[in-house]
Amino acid sequence: MRAPRNLPFLLKIYVLAGSVIIVAFAIVYNNSLIREMERESRSTTRLFSQFTAIGLRQLNDAENQTFIRDIRNAIEVPFIMTDADGRPWLWNRQTGLSTAANEHERIGKFNPAAPNDPELERVVRRAAEFDRMNEPILIEGQGFTLLLHYGPSALTRRLAVAPYVQLGVLLVFVLFGFLGLRAVQVGEQRSIWVGMAKETAHQLGTPLSSIMGWLAMMREELPHAGAPERLAKAVDEISTDVDRLSKISARFSKIGSAPKLEYLELAPIIEETVDYFERRRPTLKINSTIAVSLEELPVVRCSRELLGWVFENLMKNALDAIAGEEGKIHIEGRTNKRERRVEILFSDTGKGMSPGVRNRVFTPGFTTKNRGWGLGLALAKRIVEDIHGGTIRVLHTQPGKGTTFLITFPVD
Predict the structure, then answer these.
(1) Is the pLDDT score of 84 beyond 60?
(2) Is the sign of the CA dihedral 16, 19, 23, 26 positive or negative?
(3) How far, CA to CA in Å, does 343 sit from each of 91, 113, 137, 305, 328?
(4) Which pLDDT does position 334 carry in this prediction?
(5) Where are the alpha helices (DSSP H) in 226-265?
(6) Domains of the chain
(7) Averaged over 58-64, what is the pLDDT?
(8) Which of 147, 211, 240, 269 is most exposed, with the fewest beta carbons within 10 Å of its own?
(9) pLDDT band with cut points at 50, 70 and 90 for residue 101
(10) How far apart are CA 132 and CA 134, in angstroms?
């Protein structure tokens, strides 16, 4: 049984949906536990408060004072007990307020309507804060009426945050998993392209060596055979193209290995590329004009062969975009002294790119042509950015209005 073609996509959806379900279940389950704890805390606090209220009627009894103190320390829920007039009689340390030993002597002198004790006034304000969180509990007994004001316990607050901590941890896990998967995929793609490039160089090596040998024999025989000058010129052109193929094979062989970088001028590399295409105008059916305007550029640390490949790819793309019409290709070189870099602009008046094509133009395997593997610009990006520490991007493009690529190289 064959696996579906979209299996990686289905696996991502499965992992994402599973993660969402797990987090949702954890949040719902934790919230139910929190509500259950709140109900138990409310019931326990109310029960203890009723016992405490009975003891509050006999504050002068030492045993009652010990009993009240023990209950107050045992309740983990922050609470404040007030009488019907709003006078606070008892609270615990979980409220964050002081519980002095002589508090009961001060309570009798405290008037909630005209507060004269800053500490007890803070207790009253805290009770009002608790009332905004939970409705106070009325405790009635024989000869007394009290109100119990309470807030969330420290454990309840921590549990309330727990689902969101879990969600954050899961999101971080999914993010790093996605980045790791993406890095593995990119690494696999690069390995495939490197392997294909080296194999291409290996396959080209044998026939190129043979052709170069035959061309050498033809050059030796031409003077003796009385061949016309046109044939001799054709042999020279073939020899030039074979040398070009040898350079291309050498470029492929260097993919994946650390190239030797030297301090070179970019102008000769660009001019050599332009001259190559100018000499082949008739065979390539180039009707467009190629204009070059280069300032005096500083030397940059680069590989002549690899940059020549980049410039050739951009030139070919420009020619394909013009598609045999009478367009214009303009290559401009300038120095950005403020950012200490050299900028090369490749512009054409061709068909331009749509936003979708522009976003994917450097993706390996993506091409809008009927033929080709879609590796030219992807390799150009790798050569410029990974090997030379520069940048390459589409500066601007518009369907029917042409495209401009901007390449930058750092200046040491």
Answers:
(1) yes
(2) positive
(3) 73, 78, 75, 19, 20
(4) 93
(5) 229-254
(6) 7-152 (no CATH), 259-410 (3.30.565.10)
(7) 56
(8) 240
(9) very low
(10) 6
What SS3 class is residue 90?
strand
CA distances from 6 to 147, 167, 181 (A): 64, 28, 16
**Which 8-state DSSP code applies to residue 251?**
H
E strand or H helix at 80: strand 79-83
CB burial string 286-318: b at 16+ within 10 A, e below:
bebebeeeeeebbebebbbbbbbbbbbbbbebb
| Region 365-391 average pLDDT | 78
Burial of 226 (0-12, 13-18, 19+ CB in 10 A): exposed
In this predicted structure, which of 61-75, 336-350, 380-394 has the lowest mean pLDDT? 61-75
Show contacts of 269-276: CB within 8 Å, 24+ apart. Answer: 269/304, 269/307, 269/308, 269/311, 270/294, 270/311, 270/331, 270/333, 270/344, 272/308, 273/308, 273/311, 273/312, 273/315, 274/315, 274/331, 276/244, 276/312
Whole-number pLDDT of residue 1? 47
In Å, the largest CA–CA distance within the chain is 136
Question: CA-CA distance, 134 to 87, in Å (whole number)?
Answer: 19
Q: What is the pLDDT of residues 292-315, one digit of tens each?
A: 998 888 999 998 888 988 998 898
Burial of residue 113 (CB within 10 Å: 0-12, 13-18, 19+) is exposed
Mean pLDDT across the stretch 25-37? Answer: 74
Q: Mapping DSSP to helix (H, G, I), strand (E, B) and coil, where does residue 144 land?
A: strand
> Two tokens at 36?
């259950």
Alpha-carbon gap, residue 30 to 24, rounded angstroms: 10
pLDDT at 263 over 80: yes
Model confidence at 63, pLDDT cuts 50, 70, 90, reads low
Q: What share of the chain is helix, strand, coil (3-state, %, to 5)?
A: 60, 15, 25
Contact 94, 153 (CB under 8 A): yes
Distance CA 182, CA 7 (A): 16
DSSP of 164-192:
HHHHHHHHHHHHHHHHHHHHHHHHHHHHH
**Average pLDDT value for residue range 58-76:** 63
Average pLDDT estimate for 33-51:
69
